[in-house]
Amino acid sequence: MSEFDQRDGLSRRRVLECMTWAGTGILWTVSGGVPHSLGLIDRAVAQETGGFTFLQISDSHVGFDKPANPNALGTLEEAVARINAMPAKPSFMIHTGDISHLSKVAEFDNADRIIGQTRLDVHYVPGEHDFLDEERKLYRERYGRGTKGAGWYSFDASGVHFIGLVNVVDLKAGGLGNLGSDQLEWLEDDLKGRSASTPIVVFAHIPLWTVYPEWGWGTEDGARALEYLKKFGSVTVLNGHIHQVMQKVEGNVTFHTARSTAFPQPAPGSAPSPGPMKVADDKLRTLLGTASIAFQPSKERLAIIDSPLQG
Amino acid sequence: MLRGTIRNLAIAAALGATAAVPLAAVVLAAGEAATPGAITIDNFTFNPQGLTVKAGTTITWTNKDDIPHGIASTNNAFKKSKALDTDDSFSFTFTAPGTYQYFCYLHPHMTGAIVVEAGTGSGGGH
Q: What b/e sequence results for A149-164 when a residue is b if at least 16 CB atoms lie within 10 Å of its CB, and e otherwise?
C-alpha cells in the first residue's frame, strides 16, 4: 500500500510539473519538504488559506513598449486592480525586480504611482534593469534605504524570516547571476543563531538555482547561499527574471519563479533566445500575473498560488 | 528521357552551387568594406562574435533585439556603453593593438572579442 502511495505521489508530482510548466494556476502546500497539491485553483481557495499571506509581483518592466506587449504599464495596472479586488488583504508585497525597463525616472515614477495604489508595504529587490542609470542611484534612493551593499536586507514578519538578496550586480563575463562574497558573508551572519525551525523566505531577482545556464538563468554562487540555508526545515526561494512559473523542490527548499506583469518569455531552449515572446493578443494575459503566498505556522505549511491576469 | 532529365537537373544544381559561392564571397567582402567595425546584437548574440580589425578602427555595436543590452569590457579596457535599447548603437575606436574581450552587462552569458592588429587603415581594406 505504501508502495502504491509512493508511486501515486511521484506520478502526481510529475503531472503537476507539467501543469506548472504550462502556466496553470496551482495551489501548492509544502509539509515537511514534500509538496502536495490541493488541486487547481479556484480563486476562492485563496480565502480558505487564511492566516498570513503576502504577494509576489515581479518584472513590471515599466517603459517596455515592444510588440510582445505595447502597454506594460497597462498590464501592471490590471495586476494592481486584481490585487485590490482580493477578498483577503495580504499583509504586504514583495517585488522581485525589474520594476523599470531602462531605469528612467519616469518609469520608476509610473511604477510607484501604480503599485502604490495597492496601499501595501512593498519590499523590493533590484533586477538588472533597475541599475541602468549612470550612477546606479535611482533604485537605491527609492527602494534601498536602510539596506546593505547594493540593496540586500532581512526582516521578520509573523514568525517568518525574510531575506532579500541582490544577484544582479558585478556580473562576470560568461557567467550567471552573482551574489558576491560580501553579501554571502552577511547572509551567513544573518542566519547564525536562528533556530532551524524558523521558516525562511529568500527572494531575489534571478533564480538562485540553475534553471538554464545557456540563457544565464541561474546564480553563479547561489549554491553557497543554499549551503547556509541547509539546516532550516522550511525554506522558500522566490525569484523572477524568467517571466514564467517554474517550481522545483530540493530537500526542504522550495524554489518558485513568478510570472511578469509585462511580457512572457519562452520556456528554456524552446526559442533561439530568451527575448520577449510575442503571443496572440487573447493569450497574453494568461501568461502574465502575480503570486500569492500563504503561511500557516500552526499547520507548518506554505501555499503558493499563481494567478494569471486572465484565465 | 528520365535519365536525361535527372542529368540536366544535376548539371543545373552543380552550376547553381558553383555560381553561388563566388557571389556569396563578393557580397561578404562588400559588406565588410562598407562597415569594417559593425557588430549587430541579435537573439542575445554578438554577430560576429569574433572580429579582427586594424588599429584605429571604430567598432559600432547595434542592438536589434526587443530587449536592452549593454557592452562592457571584461577587464575594463574600454568604457562601457549606456544601456542600448532597440536600434541604439555604441561606438568605440580601438587604437591600441590587442585582444579585447567584452560581454553584455545585462546578460553576461553573451560574450565577444575584438582583435586589434597593428597598422593603420580602416580595417577592412587591403
A: bbbbbbeeeeebbbbb
The pLDDT confidence band at residue B26, using thresholds 50, 70 and 90, is very low
Q: Which helix H or strand E contains B33, and what residues bound it?
A: helix B2-34
- Give domain limits for chain B: 1-34, 36-126
Q: What is the C-alpha separation between B57 and B50, in angstroms, rounded? A: 15
Q: Into how many domains does chain A fold?
A: 1
Banded pLDDT at B7 (limits 50, 70, 90)? very low
Q: Which domain CATH number covers A151?
A: 3.60.21.10
Pick from B66, B103, B108: CB nearest A68: B66
* Confidence (pLDDT) at A279: 97
Q: What is the ipTM of this complex?
A: 0.83
Poorest-pLDDT segment among A46-55, A269-278, A293-302: A46-55
Angle between helices A181-191 and A222-229 (to 10 degrees): 10
Strand B45-47 and strand B98-104: the pairing is unpaired
Please check the confidence at residue B122 and state whether its pLDDT lies above 80: no
Count A/B contacts: CB-CB distance under 8 Å. 59
The CATH class that applies to domain B36-126 reads mainly beta
Which residues 22-61 in chain B show a CB within 8 A of chain A?
43-45
Residue A114 has pLDDT above 60, yes or no: yes
Binding-face residues of B in 56-115 toward A, CB within 8 A: 65-68, 70, 72, 74, 82-83, 85-86, 101-103, 105-111
Residue A275: which of B65, B72, B108 has the nearest Cβ? Answer: B65
Within 8 A of A171 by CB-CB distance, chain B residues are 105, 108
Angle A200-A207-B110 from CA coordinates, rounded to 5°: 155
**Closest alpha carbon within chain B to A271:** B43
Distance of CA A310 to the CA centre of its chain: 19
Handedness of CA A181, A185, A190, A192 (dihedral sign): positive
Instruction: Please state the pTM of the whole predicted model.
Output: 0.81
